[in-house]
Write a structure and sequence with these properties.
The chain has 246 residues and is mainly beta. 0% of the residues lie in helices and 56% in strands.
Amino acid sequence: MGRIYQLNPNDGAVIDSFLVPYGEVSEGIAWANGFLWVSGDTRIYKVNPIDGSVVDFIDSPEEDPRGLTWDGQYLWVGFQDLGMVYQLNVNNGDIVQSFLSPAIIQQGLAFDGQYLWVAGDGGDIYQLLVKYRLSITLDSLTAKPKNGKVEIEWETATEENNAYFRIARGDEPTNGVCNLDLNNYEYVGYSSPKINSQGTSVSGASYRFTDMTVTAGTKYCYALIDVDYDGTEIPHLVSTQPVSID
């Protein structure tokens, strides 16, 4: 069984240790707001560092997460064989954004306050610029088929300098997993409509958009794009699972 060790940074001496949750093998660990986040095979656990007890967990977007790091608001997770990196909301496990890393086989992640660092197989280390500053925080984001259309609904917890939203849609990728490669997306609606937001709000709001231009028998991926007042566009993947239109 794997163990997690607390070490003295001055001499490497072991201060304390406890078992990895549920006897799993962990290949990712991150510190966030007084707790440890520890990767398992299919879950990421929030662990009390005092006694090693599991406080909470979120489901991993894919199996075998290999690296974890905290950016001050969200948890980043990489994977061994997929090349995907996900930014997760630890309150509900929702995917905030994701992208394909240059390191297909990932061994570790780190965040320095501006850049994301990815360690790949073979000794390669990549420094990546990521859009980590978000003008909104999301409570929920869903896309569901309804009466031959697709309804996209989202709720914000807070909004800061958020000018408006747009909805982007892409065809199902060949591997069947939606991602945030926006080269494969286009804006939905007549003349790329802008969905008015709250601008700045500490209480958030609820929104709904109906995609009426879908085709039966087709699967789609969706992304919510929030645009702040300086024109910065930040995408949020609705789900890794495509929406199927019957």
